[in-house]
Every structure is written in structure tokens, then in C-alpha cells.
Specification:
By secondary structure, the protein is mostly helical. About 55% of the residues lie in helices and about 0% in strands. The radius of gyration is 29 Å and the shape is rod-shaped. Keywords: Coiled coil.
């Protein structure tokens, strides 16, 4: 994909140079502003280079997304995200179960005393909320990666379309203009990702985090989801290339806007995770470090 973008950029430069040679041969006189514009054409490949260097949305990032889905299946109790509720990509998360297989309360039947009470209060009862909190944390993390993936994919699609339409205009002796405009699909790419939880946290004490896509969707609805069109039509490269530069500039601005949406939400979530560690990680039972030497009976005698 990156080689395609670079190849198209080189072809655009080649077409511009061919036109310049043609008008030079015809003895066409250009003014200072036109000559200054032509002097910038050698930079056309550099204009496309940042887009060629965007991460491959089907590369390692996809592996990360798949791995995180595997983690979700190990944590899902089927309540926050029922297996019958598919996301926008048509995928579902299969639950590991209802967590009954993790219920150890029956294993301590008959155990009484302060240690038993503390274990039940501080470990057994909060455990379902801890698991759901971990599910939410992984789900939010995966949603953020998917959001970046969506930005990179739509950005690559947009830059390729801009290059294609520019080439088509240049290859038709600059007389083709009817299809030289296009809407930038990178706008709203973050809002298009993911599915919100079906019923929200269902266990008391669950850590509340913000979904990247959910925040973007609310913002898009409030703003009416603006659209941006770019046009690379013109009578000659002197008109087309400045429009190309403007189109790439607008695309860059919208890529940054979409990525900032992800960063803003994730920054809040990271702060919540740091402050909500107790909701995320089960308390370590004091008995986990018990030995015959440090466990005493009611009389203070070691066992």
C-alpha cells in the first residue's frame, strides 16, 4: 500500500514535468508566480511520504486487536456484552461463562472467624466486579486500537483517491473535472468503530471507563458530523497541483483531529485506571502468604 502511494506520487510529478516540457517547447511565457509554483513540483513525492508511512491497518495492529479479543473471551461473563450482540464489524464476544466456576465461596463453608469474614468481604464478594472491570479495561483498550486502525485505513483510502483523481485529471489533458471531487472518509472514522455495552455495568463497584467510539459518536451527533470535500480539478497543473496540496493539507488536519479524539478519551481512562486499581485487581488475601510459622490461633500459639 505504501509503495502504491509513492508510485502514484512519482507519476503525478512525471505528468507535471511532461506538461512543463510541452509548454516550454511551445514557447509559452509564464509569469513569476507560475514559475514559482512550478519550482515546488519536485516536492510532490515528499507531500505524500507521511501518508505512505502510516501504520499498515492490516499489519501488526490487527494482530493486537485479535489478541485482545482473545483476552475478552477469557473475561466476559456475557452480561456487559451479550454474545448475541454483534458489533459494527459483525463480530461477537463469546463469554467464558457466568463466573460460577470461579466461585470459591462453597469451598470455605464451615470456615468461621474474622479471617473467614475478611476473605469473604474483601475477596469473594468483589471478585465479579473485578472481573467485569478487567473486561471493560481490555474492551476499551481494544476499542482504542480499533479506532486508530480505522483512522489509518480511511486515511490511506483517502490519499489514494486524491492521488487517483489528480492523475486522472492530468492524464486527460487537464480537461477532466466532473469527477475530480471527493469527500474525505477519515472524518468520523473513530465514531464508526465499536459497539457500546448492552446494559452498562451490572455489578456494583465496577470501574467506569469511557469508550472511545461512544464519545466520538456523541460528539458527531452534537456537531451534525461535518463533511469535507476536496477538489483537484483544473485547466492545467498550475491549477491542479495547488488544489492537490490543499487537499493533502485538509486530510492531514482531519487525521490529527481523529487521532486526538482517541488520545483525549484514553488519557482520561488511564487516569481512571490508575485511581481505580482496587476495582481492577482483586485484593491479595492475607492467607496467601500464610505459613505454619506466621499463623496463630486465638491464644496466640503458632500452628
Amino acid at each position: 500500500m505504501s509503495d502504491d502511494i509513492r508510485g502514484k506520487a512519482s507519476k503525478i510529478l512525471q505528468k507535471c514535468n511532461e506538461w512543463a516540457q510541452k509548454i516550454q517547447a511551445n514557447g509559452t511565457v509564464l509569469d513569476a508566480e507560475q514559475r514559482a509554483e512550478m519550482a515546488t513540483w519536485s516536492q510532490i513525492p515528499q507531500l505524500f511520504e507521511p501518508f505512505a508511512q502510516l501504520p499498515d491497518p492490516n499489519g501488526s495492529v490487527k494482530t493486537i486487536i485479535d489478541d485482545l479479543k482473545g483476552a475478552l473471551t477469557e473475561l466476559s461473563d456475557g452480561q456487559l456484552l451479550p454474545p448475541t450482540k454483534a458489533n459494527k464489524e459483525g463480530e461477537t464476544i463469546s463469554p467464558v461463562g457466568d463466573l460460577k466456576h470461579m466461585d470459591v465461596s462453597t469451598l470455605v463453608d464451615g470456615w468461621t472467624g474474622s479471617a473467614a469474614q475478611n476473605f469473604t468481604t474483601n475477596f469473594i464478594k468483589p471478585f465479579p466486579a473485578n472481573v467485569q472491570s478487567q473486561f471493560i479495561a481490555v474492551y476499551v483498550m481494544r476499542g482504542a486500537v480499533q479506532a486508530y486502525q480505522s483512522v489509518w485505513k480511511t486515511a490511506r483510502d483517502d490519499v489514494n483517491k486524491i492521488a487517483d483523481k489528480t492523475l486522472k485529471a492530468l492524464e486527460h489533458d487537464c480537461s477532466w473535472g466532473g469527477g475530480a471531487s471527493m469527500a474525505l472518509t477519515v472524518i468520523g472514522s473513530v465514531a464508526s468503530v465499536g459497539t457500546a455495552f448492552a446494559g452498562g455495568p451490572v455489578v456494583a463497584g465496577v470501574l467506569a471507563l469511557e469508550l472511545v467510539a461512544g464519545a466520538a459518536q456523541v460528539g458527531a451527533q452534537a456537531a451534525g458530523q461535518a463533511k469535507e470535500e476536496v477538489d483537484v480539478s483544473g485547466s492545467d497543473p498550475l491549477t491542479i497541483v495547488p488544489k492537490l496540496k490543499q487537499a493533502l493539507k485538509k486530510l492531514t488536519e482531519h487525521i490529527k483531529e481523529e487521532q486526538n479524539k482517541v488520545h483525549t478519551v484514553i488519557a482520561k481512562d488511564l487516569s481512571a485506571l490508575q485511581g481505580g486499581r482496587s476495582k481492577l485487581i482483586p485484593m491479595r488475601p492475607e492467607l496467601a502468604g500464610a505459613t505454619k510459622g506466621n499463623v496463630h490461633d486465638l491464644m496466640g500459639n503458632a500452628n
